[in-house]
Amino acid sequence: MIDLYLIRHAESEANIFSDRAVGGRIIKTPLSERGIVQARYLKEHLPNFDTVYVSPAARTLQTASYAGIENIIQETSLLERSLGEWEGKPTEEIYTPEVLNEITSQGWDYSPPGGESKQDVEDRFYNWFNSQEFSKDTEYKKIGVFTHEMVIKAFLKRALDESPKEIYERKINNASVTNFKYDKGLWTPIKINEAYKND
After folding, report:
1. How does residue 199 score in pLDDT terms, banded at 50, 70 and 90?
2. How far is it, in rounded angstroms, from Cα 195 to Cα 120?
3. pLDDT digits (tens, 9 = 90+) for 3-43
4. What is d(CA 83, CA 114) in angstroms, rounded to the nearest whole number?
């Protein structure tokens, strides 16, 4: 059985300005001062993992480091959704009424220019998970995964068999922990979006 912990990175500098500029994958964005506090506080609430996988983005690597995690495996399959040509551009320039209509029309399958759809992220995560030896192991293992909001939402959509609308409305806070047990192909939720310090 697998005890899987999905940890969203703590607050990053990009999160502070998310209403002004399109974020997405941008891997060099560091944690904010508040994010460093959040990540340090995580240290008190995480178990001892057998293995820890971390997205190679600066914000996830820093979160794991400040949370006291020393031995990690960097995994590109855990990166945030790529928004392609949109990343870093002003939101008002990108999200025109025409683009918003297209996003609404295509929903989970919409891909920005040069980027990924949410379905791509869902498939990417599960392809990675199913390719890992631990997913087939019958021994009990605690696996830590430091990743991003969209990756966690994509995981939840399939694990909980929820609709894109339900997933869109779910909140995944910075420095939150989502914990599921996995046994014989079945996912059992233990906690979802448990955040310990977001003030």
Report:
1. low
2. 27
3. 999 999 999 998 887 778 888 898 999 999 999 999 999 99
4. 7
Helix axes 33-42, 58-66, angle to 10 degrees: 50
Q: pTM, whole model, 2 decimals?
A: 0.95
Sign of CA dihedral 92, 97, 98, 100: positive
User: Rounded CA gap, 87 and 106, in Å?
Assistant: 20
Residue 137: which residues within 8 A CB-CB, separation 6 or more?
Answer: 2
Identify the residue whose tokens are 């779910």. 170
Which is nearest to 156 in space by CA: 142, 138, 141, 171?
171
What class does CATH assign to 2-195? alpha beta
Distance (Å, rounded) from C-alpha 99 to C-alpha 85? 14
The 3-state secondary structure of the chain, one letter per residue: CEEEEEEECCCEHHHHCCCCECCCCCCCCCECHHHHHHHHHHCCCCCCCCEEEECCCHHHHHHHHHCCCCCCEECHHHCCCCCHHHCCCEHHHHCCHHHHHHHHHHHHHCCCCCCCCHHHHHHHHHHHHHHCHHHHCCCCEEEEEEECHHHHHHHHHHHCCCCHHHHHHCCCCCCEEEEEEEECCEEEEEEEEEECCCC
